Amino acid sequence: MVSLPRVVITGVGLASPNGASLAEFRANLLAGRSGVRRYSIRHVGETLAGVAEFDALRYQSRKEVRRGTRAGSIAIWCAHEALVDAGLAQGRYDSARDTRYAPERIGVFPGITEHGNVETENQIHEVAQYGFDLAFWSHHHNPRTVANNPAGEATLNLGITGPAYCLGGACAAGNLGLIHGVQLLQLGLIDLALGGGVSESIHTFGIFASFKSQGALASHTDPTKASRPFDKSRNGIVVSEGGCLFALERLDDARARGAKIYGEVLGYGVNSDAADFVLPQAKGQAACMRLALSHAGLAPRDIDLINTHATSTPQGDEVEAGAIREVFADCPTTFVNNTKSFIGHAMGAAGALELAGNLPSLDDRVVHPTINVDDLDPACAIQNLVLGEPARVERVDTILNMSFGMLGINSAVVVGRPR
């Protein structure tokens, strides 16, 4: 069997509803601070959402922000911040001066849930003000709505000339972007990858309207308590925006330049339920976890921390809890948490953000809690589910990060200390 190069995470760039850097994000996770707030959007009206705040003008001009998309701005922010964090840039990234890697050997791979909805809704609204006269339709519509837009905007801004495209994987996409970067590094096709996920979902009224019609849109008098995975009173998803891109390098290259290493990507799994448009399946989720464990060469007992996908929907959380109990039935030192309870569901960015929030556990051995679980649903009971307060544990050498999405796609990534 051919031995593939080992791949590590050397930089993290993120924008979330409760932090625009890993340090801020992690501090808020440990402090129990939610980023969900009241939000209003056309046709839907008052609702709740997770809004990512970051300074887009740090890396873009006002003209670039106007011409591009929200997802593009998020991708640009995350790419720059990941490169700075990896020690491959100082301030604004300059492909001619700041990186040790040639621009044509860098790849950009954001996972996305969907793209183009925001722009299309906005354009229809605009021409509606003029009797649907299409002369008022923006000539920027096509480049804004193509599926590779967030990746493409990042390459235009940073001067990266390597492969760049988006991975469409519903809410499993944040893991897919990372996985794809790992694969291309191991094949030797690139030397540096920026992989993860981005989402501009809160800017399309359609996603709120669709979840509402399904009875799957969260409501609560206190926005910070609306996202309640595993709680008896959970009543739906909080839609959020954000992004996270990881700087990924081959271990030998990272060590040669003395890079800081957050963790090694030990394995991953991706599969499909082939069962239903929206309803999750415990069988497929359990199979995906086992695929990731097998690929990493690990047994369930070797996993120290599981980050759950749980979105706060009645059926989804119960199905996932059952899958975890099946795979990790005899794992007394495996701890479990959830990040959506803090930030809501960031769709294509969810998996990447959730992995980022747990990466520091490999160093400090502190597991951030799941918040808003005031009355744990017995059907969602999982051994060592960390609730309310952070838990200091004896060991966190491995993390299993899980993300699942519509049309039955499942993804799981195992990250650990470099062996």
Name of the CATH architecture of the largest domain: 3-Layer(aba) Sandwich
How helical, in percent, are the residues?
A: 25-40%
What is the element string, with H for helices and E for strands? EHEEHHEHHHEHEHEHEHEHEHHHEEEE
Give the domain tally. 2
Low-confidence stretches: none
* Euclidean distance between termini CA atoms: 19 Å
Shape: globular
User: What portion of residues belong to β-strands?
Assistant: 15-25%
Summed up, the helix count is 14
CATH level 1 name of the largest domain? Alpha Beta
- Quote the CATH topology of the largest domain: Peroxisomal Thiolase, Chain A, domain 1
- Name of the CATH homologous superfamily of the largest domain: Thiolase/Chalcone synthase
Describe this structure in words.
- The chain has 419 residues and is an alpha/beta fold.
- The chain has 2 domains: 7-256, Thiolase/Chalcone synthase (Peroxisomal Thiolase, Chain A, domain 1); 266-416, Thiolase/Chalcone synthase (Peroxisomal Thiolase, Chain A, domain 1), CATH 3.40.47.10.
- The chain contains 14 helices and 14 strands.
- The protein has helices spanning 22-31, 62-67, 70-85, 117-128, 141-145, 149-158, 173-186, 205-214, 251-256, 282-296, 314-327, 340-343, 350-358, 361-364; strands at 7-15, 36-41, 45-50, 106-112, 167-168, 192-199, 242-250, 263-272, 305-308, 335-338, 366-367, 391-392, 398-405, 409-416.
- The strands form 3 sheets. Strands 5-4-6-7-1-8-14-13-9-10 form a 10-stranded mixed β-sheet, with helices on both faces. It has a two-stranded antiparallel sheet with strand order 2-3.
- Strand 13 (398-405) and strand 14 (409-416) form a beta hairpin.
- The protein is globular.
- The model has no long low-confidence stretch (mean pLDDT 96).
